[in-house]
Amino acid sequence: MTTVVKIAPDELKTASTYVSNVYDTVVKRNPNETEFLQAVKEIFDSLIPVFAKNPHYMKNGILERISEPERLITFRVPWVDDQGTVHVNRGFRVQFSSAIGPYKGGLRFHPSVNASIIKFLGFEQIFKNSLTGQPIGGGKGGSDFDPKGKSDAEVMRFTQSFMTELSRYIGPDLDIPAGDIGVGAREIGYLFGQYKRLRGGYEAGVLTGKGLGYGGSLARTEATGYGTVYFVEEMLKDKGLSFKGSTVVVSGSGNVSIYAMEKAAQYGAKVVACSDSNGYIYDPNGIDLKTVKKLKEVERKRISDYIIDHPEAEYYEDCKTIWTVPCDIALPCATQNEIDKVSAGILVSNGVIAVGEGANMPSTLEAISVYAANQILFAPAKAANAGGVAVSALEMAQNSARISWTFEEVDEKLHQIMINIYRESVNAADEYGCSGNLLAGANIAGFIKVADAMIVQGII
């Protein structure tokens, strides 16, 4: 049984003042970086009891240090399209924390990418990676390049230009990127090929999410989606519930969404809706995953084409309204802040019992407050979607040992990691007086491991 720490009111007041002052400094240093400040505030607020009980974290300036990246790199990415026109995009890599291991985090190629989004993702990655129990620090990167509508040759030229600059700052023991939105198997292949050309050697461990033929891991494709469902299933089991017999809505139709749908269906759920950036489909008979995989993984088409093969399904133009579809379990797997206060209220009104975040920070702070006020089971992103980076760490281990594990071996390790993350989050929430609050529990559990490592390594 977890022992609950006792905190005196004056200790809590001192810690609250400290956290507030550090947050004010972060705001002044990072004006207008909305996403980054949102991520910082969410984590800071939940750590107040930790600082109250452990004042040595304040003495060592842990919060001041952990909220400032060790390194933020921006660079120009020039490339030529198929018509011979020169384009220039902006590239980013934030190396946020190496306290427990080399920087680890994906690359996002999307028009919305800017310093704020990269920093929010990198900051979240610190705690997510810590929760996995693997020796990996926090990092993230990407570009405002949009691969949609580009030919393979255009994507190749862009990724080669991007890696030409990025290669100076990464390595198997320094910083190991992976994929994210807009960066799939095609992009990883081009990135790895260019890195290999520049370095003149075969350093398989420099990127994860690689193809199976050149150092990739079985179950990596499925890992984030499967891991989200594994985590949510543990959360449901504690309440005597299950995916079995439930109705599920999953936003997105990319890698995370597809395999969250697949595992939810394997657990006996009926997934009735999914989306892309244009709109969403509703299929009362349950989404046909084979059709979604064909459209998104093979043909690279829009989700609206689903109704060609399934005329009984309905397509709606506005992807944001997917949360009006009644469901028992909502799995937001598309992008940040896709569920706001209004959408959260609609989910609650329609009887949702659980929300599991497969994307990074898909719920606004106001939406999370709605979940809490209505006692909705909530699996926060940094815990629930940690499966992808967990298996990336397992891919790194296989690369280092020059071995390959079977799908079943990797999946079993992934399942156990997600169970461990859930239990650690529950125990941390119980210990610091916020039982049932998995968001606070995940933040606390992830933070303490990194903070302790920072202290023993001195002021660096």
pLDDT below 50 for ≥5 consecutive residues: which ranges?
none
Span of the ends, CA to CA: 36 Å
| CATH architecture type of the largest domain | 3-Layer(aba) Sandwich
Share of β-strand residues: 5-15%
Q: What would you call the structural class?
A: alpha/beta
Percentage of helical residues? 40-55%
Q: Specify the CATH homologous superfamily of the largest domain.
A: NAD(P)-binding Rossmann-like Domain
The count of DSSP E runs of length 2 or more, i.e. the number of strands, is 12
How does the major sheet shape up? 7 strands, mixed
Element order, helices and strands? HHHHHEEEHEHEHHEHEEHHEEHEHEHHHH
Binding site for NAD(+): 224, 255
Keywords: NAD, Nucleotide-binding, Oxidoreductase
Organism: Peribacillus psychrosaccharolyticus
Site (Important for catalysis): 180
Word description of this protein:
- The structure is a single chain.
- By secondary structure, this protein is an alpha/beta fold.
- It has three domains: 9-67; 71-202, Rossmann fold (3-Layer(aba) Sandwich), CATH 3.40.50; 221-384, Rossmann fold.
- Helix content is 48%, strand content 14%.
- The protein contains 18 helices and twelve strands.
- Strands 9-8-7-6-10-11-12 form a seven-stranded mixed beta sheet, with helices on both faces. It has a five-stranded mixed beta sheet with strand order 1-2-4-3-5.
- Strand 10 (329-331), helix 13 and strand 11 (354-356) form a beta-alpha-beta unit.
- The longest helix has 25 residues, at 407-431.
- It is globular and about 65 Å long.
- Residues 217-458 form the Glutamate/phenylalanine/leucine/valine/L-tryptophan dehydrogenase C-terminal domain.
